[in-house]
Amino acid sequence: MIDERSEETASLYVFGLLDDEDARRFEEALRSDAELARLVSELEAAAASLAHTAAPKIPAPDLKNRILDQIRAGKVAVMPRRVNWLPWALAACLAVIAGGLAVDRSRLQRELSAARDQDELSQIKIATLASLVQDAPKGVAVVAWDSARQEGIIKVQNMPMPKADHDYQLWVIDPQYPLPVNAGVFHLREDGITKASFKPDQPISSVDKFAVSLERKGGVPQHKGPIVMLGN
Amino acid sequence: MTIHGMSTGSTEENPDALLLERIKAGDERAFAQFYDRLSPLLFGLVFKILNDAREAEDVLQEGFLLVWKKAASYDSARSSPFTWATMIFRHKAIDRLRARERRDRGLEKAALEPLPAAGIDGRPDKTAWQNETRAAVHAALERLPEEQREAIRFAFFSGMTQIQISEKLGEPLGTVKARIRRGLLKLREYLTAT
Questions:
Q1: B70-94 pLDDT tens trace
Q2: For the sheet containing A140-146, what is the strand order?
Q3: How far is B181 from chain A (nearest CA, A)?
Q4: Residue A187 pLDDT grade (very low, low, confident, very high; cuts 50, 70, 90)
Q5: Gyration radius of chain A's alpha carbons
Q6: Which residue, of A13, B53, B71, B105, has the fewest CB within 10 Å?
Q7: A17 at B interface, C-beta within 8 A
Q8: What pLDDT is stored for residue B124 in this prediction?
Q9: Using CB atoms within 10 A of its CB, is residue A44 exposed (0-12), middle (13-18) or buried (19+)?
């Protein structure tokens, strides 16, 4: 049963009226709620029907041939269903956080949104993780996650180096599993900025949060140590 | 009758779905047919949003190139080709609108104009489904309370944010959201029942 609040959010989502953060949350809910996804499809169809209230217009006669010429010239190749989004996502991440600590997820989402029109980026989730370590309040991480490829990248800044016998370990919190899913350990670089790719141990259907814990060297199959970063 | 856009994307009941399948395979003739079928409607849509013929044509060109590029990502289980294409072109038009901050009074006025009569700039439609669907959509919209009709038309065409729509309509934000919700749900119901 879908309540009025969800109906309202779905309606605003269909019209593109949610802000980036609310839209991202709603898209997460959509992935795990088939009934809600069906409602959105139906509302989207109803919304699209409003196009019929605009008076149809005939475009310039040569426009079709101009488009076809561009296609034939090979400027626009048919895209395969799955493309390598990592360069796009990484470029967007770097562009946003290159200047320092001011990780602005809204801006990152907007940049990715703009890139979606040029690439197949709709499956990408961006998460920002805040430090929970009292001595490292400026610690921050950005995760770009491709649900279709089941892989992602993480970039970490301003976290303290762990002791020699410990590692930071990334976890994906997916509601379908009772425990966080292991996404591997990563090693901080001396210059304080670390970038690593990861692939969780188990299939992820919906990401609730990403977390980083401090574990013994080499990592553990199930989370045991303290959570030091958390976010979605 | 099945409203175009409310139906599934099955190739058995939707010729546009069949065309998209061929476009996925790189079939230019299918693309040309898809263009012929939808370009008047989509050009009308982007023109209504942008209120500028030159910009609308730019967006139409970019949109159809995107259709060619993204055909492989079309999911027939999720939407009809009409809905898929309409949302692509609307999104591009609103992006253009927002980028250039062209929210002038003429545009706002256009969003509130009375529903136009059917027809392509005085010329007859080529396809029967467009006439049938247009009539059905108009009939469904006429059944909505005026304030709900106004709210969803603003939401679809104006490119404004929730707050801007609220300010424009002179109504509290919560009222505007409720009107959008009720109006869209009723529109879905009326079109599905047609």
A1: 998 888 888 999 999 999 999 999 9
A2: A181-186, A166-173, A209-216, A227-231, A124-131, A140-146, A151-157, A193-198
A3: 5
A4: confident
A5: 21
A6: B105
A7: yes
A8: 41
A9: buried
